[in-house]
Design goal:
- With 288 residues, this protein is α/β, with parallel strands linked by helices.
- The protein folds into two domains: 222 residues, Rossmann fold; 45 residues.
- It is 46% helix and 20% strand.
- It contains eleven helices and nine strands.
- Strands 1, 2, 3, 4, 5, 6, 7, 8 and 9 form a nine-stranded mixed sheet that branches.
- Strand 1 and strand 2 form a beta hairpin.
- Helix 6 packs antiparallel against helix 7.
- The longest helix is centred in the last third of the chain and has 29 residues.
- It is globular and about 55 Å long.
- The two termini are 29 Å apart.
Amino acid sequence: MPYCLAAMVDRSSRIKLSAGQIFWHEAGDSRRPVLIFLHGSWHDRTQWDGAINLLSKNFHCLALDLLGFGNSIAVQAPNSIEMEVDCLQEFITALKLRQIYLIGHSLGAWIAVSYALKYPKLVKGIVTISPEGFSVANWQYQFTTRWLLSQPSMFRLWLNSLQVIASIGDGVEPLTKSLAYWGFFKRFPTTCKLLFQRSDRDIRRELVADRLAQFKLPLLILQSDRAERQTIEQSQSYARSVRTSEYKLIKEPALTSPPESIRQMAVEIQDFLDRLQLHIDREELETW
């Protein structure tokens, strides 16, 4: 019994790496299979709190603030997916984690797939939710957004004008919503850098479509059926390109936010990982 209690963890920690400091929360039994959760473009590690509450009963769960997000501090602002991948590898090495599963949403899914392509022997399987980074054909970032962010003074002036108009009162609900939306850009500078403030050439170099023929790992792709058409098309493109993938279109509005959606997502993840783990255990038994 004392040994069992010692194996249970529920804590937040920080570690200093070459690219900066990474903050993470972990929960579950440290002897169980390791799940590393990578958040989406406009989120931080807290996006996964609900899922970890459910999955930590059977897994050792770690949710990171990616470099430049949340409580993680970058020495230099991340300017590539590769930089995030290298930081993730240094984190995994520093904590001596072995044979992990990666769970990624949106930008986090792009990083997870890129990591698995670079370090396939370290990963048992991947779950992606609305994955980003497939190809230019699915590229959904609007020219206007990129232009505004390339013109800081005009961007600030535009935001200030929205604030003035929104303060008038009656009939400005749409503008208030727009102001809240654009406020994300001020809160997530790393997202802006990675998705909007890089050259097309740099972005194209890190898209994964041309490299997925090398992808041999089990992959579960979860997608809300209420997402934008481009988002659904991108996740379907991933599924068509990876022979070892499973694709599930789920009737939920947002798989990482409402409690009922989180439960559905956790059930799908649990089922997928249970089947993988059973297969792995059988292989190890046959080898033994």
